[in-house]
Amino acid sequence: MAPSPTGSMHIGNLYGAVSDERIAHTSGGTFILRIEDTDDKRKVEGGVEKIIKYFSRFGLEFDEGATAEGDNGKYGPYRQRQRAKFYHIIARKLVLDGRAYPCFCSEEDLKLAHEKQESEKENFGYYGKWAIHRDMDIDEAIEKIKNGESFVLRFRSLGNPEKKIDFKDGIKGNLSFPENNQDFVLLKSDGIPTYHFAHVVDDHFMRVTDVVRGEEWLSTLPWHVELWSACGFKRPRFSHTAQVLKFDEETGAKRKMSKRKDPESTLEFYFEKGYPANSVLEYLMTLLNSNFEQWRSANPMASYKEFDFKTSKMGSSGALFDLAKFNDVSKNVIAKMSAEEVLEGVLAWSKEYDNEFYTLLSKDKEYAKAFFSIGRGGKKPRKDFACWSEVKDFVSYFYNELFSVNEEEYPEKISADERKKILAEYINVYSAEDDQNGWFEKVKALSESFGYTTDMKAYKQNPESFKGSVTDVSTVIRVAITGRQNSPDLFAICSLLGYDTVIERLKNA
RNA sequence: GGCCCGUUGGUCAAGCGGUCAAGACACCGGCCUCUCACGCCGGUAACGGGAGUUCGAUUCUCCCACGGGUCACCA
Q1: pLDDT tens digits, A342-353
Q2: Is omega for the bond preceding A161 within 30 degrees of 0, making it cis?
Q3: Radius of gyration of chain A (CA)
Q4: Angle between helix A470-482 and A490-497 (nearest 10)
């Protein structure tokens, strides 16, 4: 993994990191972190620490490379700014081999050339007759350098674009493209390498065997192919991943995820909403390997790390990020957690994002664990929430501090007057001693006494011929106690709330 | 504009010359002795267009269209 320390982390970075990590660790390899800080303009203070911290939150630990404290590994340094001597040694070799030369063009010169190329409908770039310093007299060049003229070091391409080269990519399969003829920049005027040069030198000296990077690098692959061979290095395997895309509501087309338009593109989004790290990983795995979902349904409890990850199973076209699907994945992840794990997750999240909720939860953790246990753990666990920020709303009625009833929640067909009578009567019969069955028998009896049927089959077949059903009565009770029409098992809720609270809420209703 | 990559239901996708073209999400019905959720059963819905190769093309070739990427002293 070789990010720039820009301080912002994108879902695409994580997508790449997960595939890097899986490929490394399923093949007995080493997962390396190298910091690509060759561009000063993009560097942000603390960016490296942030990258490491974020990856760690997703369980991605590097075997080797840059760490917050320094370097870990024998092929360092792992920050490109500290590796100048490596680049300069290879640059010297290329110059001596006649494969690199100084170029004195200013930005202005290059811009002019570009405009000319445009008007003459020629290909852009520095090549052929446009490479004006390529065949400059060596003494003249030395003289200019001695005079302190600014220059960059360019690659001397020997490629012929008439010729095609075949290339085997780990994800895209067989590719074919023209040979490179661009004399691209190796060292910038400040002596710092460009990505193209740095990656070749670093990957060689760091003994990298597999490069996994985004498909935006495909177009410069011919450059890299020629450069690898000019350096005399053995090329690693390359795999170019498809991009994570997003459906644009405005234009109705797929496009790259954008930091500005798509909140879900930044990792902070997942932290703020409180999605478990595993949910994100799980979803990325479904995007990454098409057979992951199948494997998952056969191995519901296994760690995703047990899955046999294959680059050949990675999609070669960009995948849309689907929030609805992601939420479903996350619900499944949470549904498999124990009440304790759920509490832990909500606690950690609320501590940072919802202090009121955090205080309530930590006041009595056993109580919280108990209500998180409702409908959890069995064969058919509830799937109520996709992230921790949704939890509060689901469990608010367990706390008097959060509990409130909106009149509109009560069923319309029952008048306020009738409702009060029903609830008053229910107070008389409600007992903390009842078990699940006894509890429901009382609700049924109550319904019958007010003329509501308990024969649901008959009611469904012919609802008009009844005043209402036991559903209506239990909804009245449910709203009075939970403030909402939908909830998990009401008996379990009442048991947890305790007799006094239940009666109090019924009285206040 | 050049070059490269891609195009199967609303979305993610399997498929790798002969399939009634999987599966998942979403959606719509139905069932599950209170709601919701879960689960189960069922349903709607797809090979961008045109040539060619072939007994036979979603699968192979070519052309076109569309989408994406790239053409920096950014990565």
Answers
A1: 999 999 999 999
A2: no
A3: 32
A4: 30
A315 CA – B47 C1', rounded, Å: 17
For residue A171, what are the contacts with CB-CB under 8 A and spacing of at least 6?
A: A239, A240, A241, A242, A311, A312, A314, A316
Give, in Å, how far the C1' of B15 lies from the CA of A14: 29
Chain B footprint bases within 7 A of protein beta carbons = 1-8, 10-15, 22-26, 31-39, 67-75
DSSP line for A6-72: -S--BHHHHHHHHHHHHHHHHTT---EE-B----GGG--TTHHHHHHHHHHHTT---SEEE-SSSEE
- d(C-alpha A33, C-alpha A62), whole Å: 6
Rounded to a whole number, what is the distance in angstroms from the first to the last CA of chain A? 59
What are the residues facing A253 on neighbouring strands? A248
Which residue, counting CA atoms, is nearest to the C1' of nucleotide B11? A322
- Work out the burial of residue A104: count CB atoms within 10 Å of its CB; fewer than 13 is exposed, 13-18 middle, 19 or more buried: middle
- In whole angstroms, B32 C1' to A66 CA is 56
Task: Note whether ipTM > 0.95 here.
Answer: no
Residues of chain A falling short of pLDDT 50: none
Q: Smallest Cα–C1' distance to nucleotide B70: which residue has it?
A: A219
Give the 3-state secondary structure of A179-241. Answer: CCCCCCEEECCCCCECHHHHHHHHHHHCCCCEEEEEHHHHHHHHHHHHHHHHHCCCCCEEEEE
> What is the CA A247 to C1' B14 distance in angstroms?
23
What is the tens place of the pLDDT at every residue in A50-85? Answer: 999 999 999 999 999 999 988 999 998 999 999 999
Bridge partners (DSSP) listed for residue A101: A154
> Which CA-bearing residue is nearest the C1' of B36?
A486
Q: Of all protein residues, which has its CA closest to the C1' atom of B2?
A: A123
Q: Which residues have C-beta within 8 Å of that of residue A64, sequence separation ≥ 6?
A: A30, A31, A32, A33, A72, A73, A75, A78
pTM of the prediction? 0.89
Cβ atoms A43, A6 nearer than 8 A: yes
Q: Which residues of A62-81 are buried (b: 16+ CB within 10 A; e: fewer)?
A: bebbbeeeebebebbbbbbe
Are A415 and A409 within 8 A, CB to CB?
no
